[in-house]
Amino acid sequence: MAAVATVCSTQTLRFMPTIGLQRTRSKTTSRSLVSIDSEKHWTNLELKKSPASTWVCMSKPEDQEIVPPVPPPDCCNQKETEEVTQVASETAKENATPVEVFQQIGPSKQMNRLIALGSVVFAVGLFVSGRLEGVARPGLSQLSANAVPYEEALANGRPTVVEFYADWCEVCREMAKDVYQVEEEYRDRINFVMLNVDNPKWEPELDEFGVEGIPHFAFLDAKGNEEGNIVGRLPPKFLRENVMALAKGETAVPHSSVVGSFSSADSRQAPQLVGPRSHSEN
């Protein structure tokens, strides 16, 4: 029966052979004395060692060679493995869903980012709403700045809409948006004139057109003849349809002598909330 050399340890150990394994060679028998876990074993087997080996419990016939397992990667390979692991981790973070990313960052960072994002959205909202409001709700000053001078309107051969207004007129301010929209659509075919009732210069025109309440809109044909008028707060379509009729060259407007709620033109005789315009002839 073949002799069996038993090389055992109580558990699988990973160690440098010079630390956990001691081997001495007999001068008389050429056998190796192997000491594992403080137990000595004589064997004829040559144990192959590597810089870092894993020695396991094994029993083999005396004529077989004990070959330790392949050693683990050296320091360089281990560094490459760590780099690959780090790259994989970064890739996983990039491919993570927003919820996963939100869970990976700390609570304080989550709150700071939410606050910063909310502040940006709020600021952009204020800016956009302000720009839209500036476009959608123009004031009387903008209408006056865009207006055609009265004398020019009577001389250029185009139909004309004359609006009598005042800065203190609440209804005038409310209707500014509707007037502006119609002007933008027809300004290339229709003259839009603004006359401020607080300006003494327009006293003759106030009497000529019989202005008693404002806003007062007078619709003139291409020759300067009045075709109709509307006064006060009225549906926007009244103004639009009258302007459309003038643009088509019709001799009459569909809405005339229609009166809505208005501010009395006589208020200009009282102490004025806003003085006459000094920067224009309107």
From TrEMBL:
Biased composition (Low complexity): 258-267
PROSITE patterns, per the entry: THIOREDOXIN_2
Ranges for region Disordered: 258-282
Domain Thioredoxin: start-end pairs: 131-248
Top-rank taxon: Eukaryota
CDD domains, alphabetized: TxlA
One Pfam short name: Thioredoxin
Protein name stated in the entry: Thioredoxin domain-containing protein
Organism: Physcomitrium patens (Spreading-leaved earth moss)
Lineage: Eukaryota, Viridiplantae, Streptophyta, Embryophyta, Bryophyta
Primary gene name: LOC112275382
